[in-house]
Amino acid sequence: MQPLDVIHTIAGPTGDIGAAFYFDPATLEVGQQLGLDGFRFYVLGRGGVLGDVEPDVVLAAFGYFEPGLVAKMWRSACEVMAPREAARAYVGCMATFGRARFADVPGLTAYCDAAERVIAATDPSALPLFAGLRAEPLPDDAPGRAAHLAMVLRELRGSAHLVAVRASGLRSEVAHAIKRPSDVGMFGWADAPAVTDDDRARHARAETLTDEILLPSFEVLDDTAGDALVAGTRAMHAALTS
């Protein structure tokens, strides 16, 4: 399988796997124990790898969200705990999720080896959320480690896509409305932005550019490693839906 085929094959499933723990009951319980509701734990936990920063820095890394919503959630959550502490707790929730859902999934060691090669080969320039998450410690066990790496790969594509969106001349909220029109309100926008044919063409270009940004990272994989990454991704995704 060619590197671009690997990128296309794992994109959607990795997105699902990497986000599956966000509002899982076990994650919400950890947040409650820390004094954070589900959305504040998401914002502070996911963005906490950036450190003690202003809300606009978090918005720059997240994209897509209405700025006032990010500012409100970030500032109120920071009153409860430090961002880096929240990040460590949040990242730990993904490992816990992996242990619960992927313990019987085959091929995770080979998946982890391939994923780590991709992640290590990535130039982190202009990808702050990915870079921050990549710096977090890896779990030692295969299910927790595989889940963690899927989360990092999700942030890799998301960060690259946000760069591609801006390079294509789109505002991130317009790109979000094109890709996830039913989630506009969830991301804090009162109304969906107007979307033109030109916007859709630019978004298509952004998807292609995302792949081009990612390609050097995946070119480090030989056929065996590429197949392992795809097989592990498919197996974990199947475990999510079984």
Helical amount: over 70%
State the helix count.
12
**Total separate domains:** 1
Q: What is the averaged pLDDT score?
A: 97
Order of SSEs: HHHHHHHHHHHH
Query: In what range is the share of β-strand residues?
Result: under 5%
Any idea what the shape is?
globular
Structural class: mainly alpha
What is the topology?
Layout: H1 3-19, H2 25-34, H3 38-47, H4 55-62, H5 67-78, H6 83-101, H7 108-120, H8 128-134, H9 142-167, H10 172-179, H11 197-218, H12 223-241
Helix pairs in contact: 1-9, 1-11, 1-12, 2-6, 3-5, 3-6, 4-5, 6-9, 7-9, 7-12, 8-9, 9-11
Q: Could you explain how this protein is built, in words?
A:
By secondary structure, the protein is mainly alpha-helical. It has one domain. It has twelve helices and no strands. It has helices spanning 3-19, 25-34, 38-47, 55-62, 67-78, 83-101, 108-120, 128-134, 142-167, 172-179, 197-218, 223-241. Helix 2 (25-34) packs antiparallel against helix 6 (83-101), helix 4 packs across helix 5 (67-78) and helix 7 (108-120) packs across helix 12 (223-241). 45% of the residues are buried.
